[in-house]
Model the fold of this input.
Amino acid sequence: MLPGLAERIDAALPQTQCTRCGYADCRAYAEAVAEGSAAINRCPPGGAEGVARLAALTGREPAPLDAQCGAEAALRIAHIDETGCIGCTLCLRACPVDAIAGARRRMHTVVADWCTGCALCVAPCPTDCISLLPPASTATGWAAWSAEQADAARARHARRAARLARAQALREQRLRALTPTPAVDPALLAAAIERARRRQAAR
Done:
């Protein structure tokens, strides 16, 4: 793998973090493409232009988008019907770029300018109050998205990942503090010390 290739591939991806490529996020897909374990035609949000970009970076032949990953389509933004929202926060946890605002038992809403159209918030909603709005434009792929939007989405995704990692570390720290240290049997400790003394004396 060429030095920095994964970074250049990641920079050529739209950063929707939609997982349609089969990887956890755009960075994971970029790394798989860079090491040769993933095809370059698995990113529907990037469209045909995205495939061409990856082909130029990797030296591979362009190919039609993999239909199993989805089709190139116009950008559709998520919308929450606030009359049906129960504030369960499942959509907040699902959104990879923190584009949903709200709190537990409070009405949620989508920050439209931040939404990447990944649709990951739709399935977890228990009241089916989240839908994807009809596209505002017929443009698809990179014609419907910009490098600035991709950079902003990447930054939000990174901040979210860092926040979740901190929260996980804090939970583990609290769990360790709550876990009692096993008491040492005095007899076993004395026997261990005696064995150590005997080994020392035998030297």
User: Anything to note?
Assistant: Strands lie at 78-80, 100-101, 109-110, 130-132. The chain has a mean pLDDT of 93.
